[in-house]
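Purpose: get a first structural picture of the assembly so the mutagenesis plan has something to point at.
Setup: two entries, given in the order below. No constraints added.
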Amino acid sequence: MSDAPGTFNMAAGLPEPLPEPIYMDNNATTAVAPEVVEVMLPLLTEHYGNPSSMHRFGAAAGQAVDTARQQVAALLGAAHGNEIVLTGSGSEADNLAVVGTLHAYPDKRHLITTAVEHPAVLGLARDLEKRHGYDVTFLGVDNDGRLDPDELRDALRDDTAVVSIMMANNETGVLFDSAAISEMVKERGAVFHVDAVQAAGKLPLDMQSLTGVDLLSVSGHKLHGPKGVGALYVRRGTKIRPQIVGGHQERGRRAGTENVAAVAGFGRACDLAMENLELENTVVRDLRDRLEAALLQRIPDCLANGAACERLPNTSNISFHYIEGEGILLLLDRIGIAASSGSACTSGSLEPSHVLRAMGVPFTQSHGSIRFSLSRYNTVEQVDYVAASLPVIVERLRQITPFNAERATF
Amino acid sequence: MWNYSDKVFDHFMNPRNVGEVESPDGVGEVGSMACGDALRLSFRLGDDGRIADARFQTFGCGSAIASSSVLTEMVKGLTLEEAAKITNEQIAGELDGLPREKMHCSVMGREALEAAMIDYYKRQGRNVPCGLLQESTELCHCYQVSRETVREAIMTHRLTEIEDVTHHTKAGGGCGECHHDIGDLIRDCQDKWEREDAASGGLQELAELPAAAVPVAAADDREGRIREVLVTDIAPALRNDGGDIELVRCHNERVYVRLTGNCAACKASEATIKGFVEAQLREFVDETIQVIEVD
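Result (structure tokens, whole complex):
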């Protein structure tokens, strides 16, 4: 084909698209569940009151917020509804956790996080280090994405204010053992924050048994709720300084009139997440495994990143050698498949995924990595369609790349 | 999602001239898998000395593939001298533009063409004709970008941020070690174009500004403070070395000065201006001050 002069057809051999597009980018954001939309709408129309107001409009809105708070608390297995601080996003919850703790312990100038955190924590930690003079330890991971417990133990100091380590990685799905980590952190008297934005709704959470976790972030739009709402679990007795100061909302821990409709939607989404937790770990896991196995079997020179570890049930991150991720995404999009890539070219930076780099995945593989993140709305038919299309796409792009197994460099 | 033009999509979905030219006259290879994009460009000359065939192989994103494809179309039928004049802006223009962050894809095309031409002259056992290519030294080692490429991008687009330089040339997108050098180069170029602007009437324009155009009190106060720092701190130090300094004009954040005495002829006057005069004024007057030397 590449010998023919003139034009090369990138779409040659691709199967006809399915009637509906296929969404497999659920770690970026999720479809809002119809049940969620249903509880949100009246709060945008008739029940528009301010929850703080002393009249019937306020009461209806206040009721909706209370209900949602209980629903979020239930998903997290929190003992008390007032341990939930509603925020405007998962990132805000992360910021409140880390900065709010640092401000509560002004004499402690050290924090610990990992090199594979979401930018909400990683970018914040770098900023605290560069602009505010904090001492930050970034823990590394091994080739499979695992943390080294000894490295954490050695990093903990008397002046460590907070340790912030995610529960599940957004790019690879690799899990960190929050319970085991918390034991070490509590032994040294630091506050332990867990970014559970990807884990919530996909893994069972129980704050009453995770007693060493003081703070835990979740986000609405990662579990079929709306965007613009998140929450920070603050264990009773944990000192934290508010970062948005003003009104008395959230018991003085986060000022600002509650985004009532979004909060209610988030609450409903937490309900649904609990109902579907088993499904996520059976049906969705099977779909993910089916997709990953088919791709690894049908496409030469590719590998699944982080697959040696325990992972989220919905996530598969695969590196395709000798080609670049953006081309794959553009071609997938042409046939209605949505996924994402750790490639530098898709982000506007020149750096490929910081997660894959921290895992020591060579540049040569990280530029061609694609993340499929599934949800309960995906079907076997969709998985089989992706598994049939991707080998063609990879082959096309490999026909025009100068690299292959014999020649991986100029 | 990138806002790619229809032409970029067309060249990505239906790339022209994919592959390798049989018995090529020149082959250029730039980039690497580590960089995130790489291009192999080969061409063959016809009996008339014009490029009869050009083919490409690209590892890279949609715009890298499209840039390579459109470049092979652009060079066909050209002599090497004509092809050498193709700029990365022309490549991007032929695609109806590229997103700012993707300009480096067109630069890669331009570099591969250059490399292929060098290869051609090597195969012929001839020297590369003078003026056809620019001599270059590597500034960014991660992405193998020359100082000349960076300087040209800064001057052409009057770039003032390292981030913009990275978007245009990729330089500085890797380990970041060259950020310092890029920053220096930006300041060099800035000075150069400001001096050019000043020489081409900028200063006269300033002199002719009606008095009311500048908020008098604020300007006086600021200029007064600048003058004070110059007189009390800076000039005495320069006089120790047999030099001196005059304030020519202040305009917004720019302070135009003239070095006299030993300083005027000093090769290190650049360091004096930036490292001492500007640093002092920034510390004592305000942080945005840029000191520009005029003759």
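Confidence is low (pLDDT under 50) at residues 202-217 of chain B.
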